[in-house]
Specification:
Number of strands: 12
Strand order of the largest sheet: 2-8-7-6-5-3-4
Shape: globular
Helix content: 40-55%
Order of helices and strands: EHHEHEHEHEHEHEEHHEEHEHHEH
CATH architecture of the largest domain: 3-Layer(aba) Sandwich
Distance between the termini: 32 Å
CATH superfamily of the largest domain: Type I PLP-dependent aspartate aminotransferase-like (Major domain)
Structural class: alpha/beta
Bound molecules: pyridoxal-5'-phosphate
CATH class of the largest domain: Alpha Beta
Largest sheet: 7 strands, mixed
Oligomer: single chain
């Protein structure tokens, strides 16, 4: 078997940049002071956090003081949604989200739905695009919060966030707009101020940073109830001794990603195009991801093939892909994202997600194409 791994599962997580690993090893070894300590070692750790906060704030075009570090995208989503709702219970009892959000958003909305709130889950079309007319009808003077993701993790569908913000604010200027930008940050230039976003969730391990680190942008003036209460770190928004190596590594990863953002976009666009066309030309398959979605994600359904079987055959050749999303693919339930898009069950069951990064090369696409062409006829069920 070829020893070199071909990793096309970058929406699940990414390989950290060498510079991130070097930095983190250095911080673990030499900069292990608690940022709350008053001595020099504490101050040095605090400086690292400050630098990372500034780096992420700069990339977003927001103030560093509007960036709060968390343990990742899931916690950022929780802090935004639960934190805002719990701090503003009297302002309204209506919530709006879409049917294709990540479980770390959807499950919180379901919790509030079971606890006295009215929740509208906005439909999407076959490309996964949120129905803007329905959104327009649903936002009312009772709507406390709307949460719509920027890029879908299974299909790469990109939502028109600026339009969404205009619709939300036109109907109720007090409705807060939260955006899960975990699959967008470091890939699409986003300025929450320009886009009309009040809160935005980010995750480090999707952009070649360490796992277990993320951030939440919260526009100045918004009140959130913290989920973690204690020593008052992160301006009391998120208590707990800071993950200094993780935060520092996240800041470095963000800096590198944004430096290469246009070049990487072009590179992964080419890789996605080659893989997609190669598959369409040679196999009985269809593209599920929308034509003008994120170039980082390609979702293809292979007629008569069980996705999991194809995935394991590919893994046997050191080629790593995903079925649906990494979060639900182990649970053996059909993807809520693809179901909401009206995708046929037979396609959902045969859908494979390929997701790319700066570390992928054309040669890997060619090897993968060859492998799939070879495997599919062997595992395809005859009708
Ligand atoms: C769109 C989206 N939101 C949130 C998350 C959760 O992020 P984390 O793994 O950092 O908790 C993910 C991870 O897959 C994601 O893709």
């Amino acid at each position: 078997m070829r020893e070199k791994k071909i990793y096309f599962d970058n929406s699940a997580t990414t390989r950290p940049y060498d510079k991130v690993i070097e930095d983190m090893v250095n911080v673990y070894a030499s900069n292990y002071g608690n940022p709350s300590s008053l001595h020099t070692m504490g101050i040095n750790s605090e400086k690292l956090i400050k630098e990372a906060r500034r780096s992420i704030g700069n990339e977003l075009g927001v103030k560093a003081s509007e960036v709060y570090f968390t343990s990742g995208g899931t916690e950022s989503n929780s802090l935004a949604v639960e934190g805002y709702i719990n701090a503003n219970l009297r302002k309204g009892n209506h919530l709006v989200t879409s049917k294709t959000e990540h479980p770390s958003v959807l499950e919180i909305f379901k919790y509030y739905e079971n606890n006295g709130f009215t929740v509208d889950y906005i439909n999407v079309d076959h490309k996964g695009m949120v129905d803007l007319e329905e959104l327009d009808k649903k936002i009312s003077d009772k709507t406390l919060m709307a949460s719509i993701m920027m890029v879908n993790n299974e299909t790469g569908t990109i939502q028109p966030i600026e339009k969404i913000s205009r619709i939300v604010k036109k109907n109720n200027r007090d409705t807060v707009l939260h955006v899960d930008a975990v699959q967008a940050f470091g890939k699409i230039r986003t300025n929450p101020g320009i886009s009309g976003i009040d809160m935005m969730s980010l995750s480090s391990h999707k952009i070649h940073g360490p796992k277990g680190t993320g951030a939440l942008f919260v526009k100045k003036g918004f009140r959130l109830n913290p989920i973690l209460i204690g020593g008052g770190q992160e301006a009391s928004m998120r208590s707990g001794t800071e993950n200094v190596p993780g935060i520092s590594g996240f800041g470095i990863a963000a800096g590198i990603c944004f430096q290469n953002i246009e070049d990487t976009w072009e590179k992964v666009s080419i890789l996605k195009g080659k893989l997609k066309n190669g598959l369409l030309e040679n196999l009985d398959c269809i593209e599920i991801s929308p034509e003008h979605g994120s170039p980082y994600i390609l979702n293809m359904a292979f007629e008569g093939v069980k996705a999991e079987v194809l995935l394991h055959h590919l893994a046997g050749e050191n080629i790593f892909v995903s079925t649906g999303s990494a979060c639900s693919s182990r649970k053996n339930i059909r993807s809520h994202v693809l179901s909401s898009m009206g995708t046929k069950n037979s396609y959902i069951d045969s859908a494979i997600r390929f997701s790319f990064s700066i570390f992928n090369e054309l040669e890997e696409v060619n090897i993968t194409l060859g492998a799939i062409k070879n495997i599919v006829p062997k595992i395809k069920t005859k009708r």
